[in-house]
Amino acid sequence: MKAVLITIGDEILSGNTVDTNSNFIAGELKKIGIPVVQIFTVSDEIESIKNSLDAAFKLGDLVIATGGLGPTKDDKTKTAFKEFFSDEIVLDSETFDHLKKYFEKRNRGHLLELNKPQAEVLSKAFIFQNENGSAPCQMIQENGKIVISLPGVPYEVKPLIKDKIIPFLAQKFSLNHIVTHTISVVGIPESLLSEQIESWELALPNDISLSYLPVGNRIKLRLTAQGKSEEKLEQRIDQEVQKLKPIIGDNVISWSGDNIEEILKQILDEKKLTVATAESCTGGELSRLLTSISGSSTYFLGGIVAYDYHKKIEILGVSEKTIQDKTVVSEEVAEEMSFGAQKLFKTNISLSTTGVSGPNSDEFNNEIGTAFYSIRVNDFEQTNRLHLPHFDRNDFANFVSQRVLQDLVEILIKEKY
Amino acid sequence: MKAVLITIGDEILSGNTVDTNSNFIAGELKKIGIPVVQIFTVSDEIESIKNSLDAAFKLGDLVIATGGLGPTKDDKTKTAFKEFFSDEIVLDSETFDHLKKYFEKRNRGHLLELNKPQAEVLSKAFIFQNENGSAPCQMIQENGKIVISLPGVPYEVKPLIKDKIIPFLAQKFSLNHIVTHTISVVGIPESLLSEQIESWELALPNDISLSYLPVGNRIKLRLTAQGKSEEKLEQRIDQEVQKLKPIIGDNVISWSGDNIEEILKQILDEKKLTVATAESCTGGELSRLLTSISGSSTYFLGGIVAYDYHKKIEILGVSEKTIQDKTVVSEEVAEEMSFGAQKLFKTNISLSTTGVSGPNSDEFNNEIGTAFYSIRVNDFEQTNRLHLPHFDRNDFANFVSQRVLQDLVEILIKEKY
């Protein structure tokens, strides 16, 4: 079974909204062995939607469309589906009852009549009720194909997919498993890595595929295989991973994790170490990354975003003289910030960042794109500098934060803390 | 001129990576009046890439493809382009010189030979050199159409688009302008808003389009128009906006801003107020949102992420008794946190969050998805509760943070601080 996604919405095409639904849906489908083979992102126009349905049918057996189901005039997905399937739109009493409860629960009973059209669905459709919004999810099965229309709001999409669509598909079809395995490599450029593992790569079985995914200066090697038995797939992939150990073992910082924050969690849990942060140029991104992992509260105790430089002095105890002598974007200030955070939060590890993210230079005329970050593990300390002049503000904060966590992982592995 | 984007990469289709390039490129193209009419996301397979080029040519005059240009075996875009355009791949000496400088600058001269294939390009292509990576950007012009192939790494894509592709297109074509204008409405559901402004909406000129974009409980009304004179377009849109004032004026929190953090910046700059944060369940997301805006350092002085509850006591001065009596996820703790932050950072405004983001409940058995947030403006204070049981961890942090900023905007507008 192959899936095609259709993302419907002018707000995506206009660059206003990033489409995160496709990413979520593709990830969930992969878990039950359904690969997504293509994604169409189209405008809120009846013809575009119909054309994409047509194209999607040629590529897959399962089509999942998101968006265009709001109660307003700019939303046209339902009409496009009606025309595409030569169907009628009818008021569904079960959906109407659900809608009634939905509005009553929110003390908005007076809005029911106005939203009645949201209970009008395709006559052929099977309905999955939406617990978090007024637009129901409709499914049509025709000629052995399945088409599902979902609303576009991510927090309506996620529970519908996770709690209703995926269980339905997993139960109805005897599906393959897709197993992926990620190895994180550092300290070697992609071209050289590719050369070093060439004979291993060429000897991989045909049904195990390899991708190189660079993230900053880390390269994720991802192995993927598909088949009936999850256990067997995992065994076969593991055999290949074992062969890689003598070839690039020294450059590997994780044999199984994916995100750097997950890799770090494994290590911190094992070593029972705690972490605090003191951020300036990353503005909270570093602690956000750390706390994005469930269970992070066991090792992440807290952080300071000392954005104004007086706060670096008052709260973190950075010396005013250091700031005057070296400016706020300096190795010395990064070091004093991590020292202050370790003391304030009483943690084993502290991480600090200070830099100029632009687009304007700072009050000390430091060069845009410069960042210093300090990593402290017990009484060990290391400061590094990054120079990223072409990065926009948010990419800069994210890149620096990722690098801090990656360097911490490297230190914890190599230095055996 | 119409544009079609092609995103090439198995890592997108597998749900591993969110495609942020399309969003950026669409936004930049819009600024010079080129609408994106469709996006194809396809796998790293030669046939898929060729088919998408074929389909893209039918829909637009400008095709921009990203991804699949790495030096490793899993990247196949160049071969697909070669076959599609029946062209040859040749070593380009200028690109090779650029590559040489690129590696030398990074003290990686020894890697040049290995990366030589990166200087091999389509013989028909015009080359835009890549300052931040080894894969050049290639452009082919044929039958009045333009096709551009870019690498996939976002921080390579952004400067290529901004500094090279956009200036080239803007100079070559006499383009239309696309003007958009966003009005932010709160305190009224989408269906009711749609009814209230129905006659205004139906009377809009044909070439001004309206979209409803819900973000939490805020609705963004977006007006879009396209034409030769930017000034005239803005005047015409403004006329329509003026007519809206008597109809929904009381519910509008911004007549022009888009993101809530931008809307807040305008107000804080005008009123010369400073802000600090004290976060728990949002884990840094609130300060990240605040600092994502350039110039935020004039009003955002800093924040605390007090993740461990002892830190709420030690650093923010929350009383241990309050935590014991009310648990850490309570109105009272939220209030004491904002009080502590206002005192610690000496700001006019302080914002705090405390909640349970899940997937696991906290040590006090509070219900997953519960959050309290407190907003303090000078001696005014307000605490609210949110209940978002179906949200995943990161959506929860983002939703709560957005809501805090939105409520702050409402308070600042209505209470005239």
From TrEMBL, chains A, B:
SUPFAM superfamilies per UniProt: CinA-like (SSF142433), Molybdenum cofactor biosynthesis proteins (SSF53218)
Pfam families linked to this entry: CinA (PF02464), CinA_KH (PF18146), MoCF_biosynth (PF00994)
Gene3D superfamilies the UniProt entry points to: CinA-like (3.90.950.20), MoaB/Mog-like domain (3.40.980.10)
Domain MoaB/Mog: from-to ranges: 4-172
Family of this protein: Belongs to the CinA family.
Protein name: CinA-like protein
The species this protein was found in: Kaistella carnis
Organism ancestry: Bacteria, Pseudomonadati, Bacteroidota, Flavobacteriia, Flavobacteriales
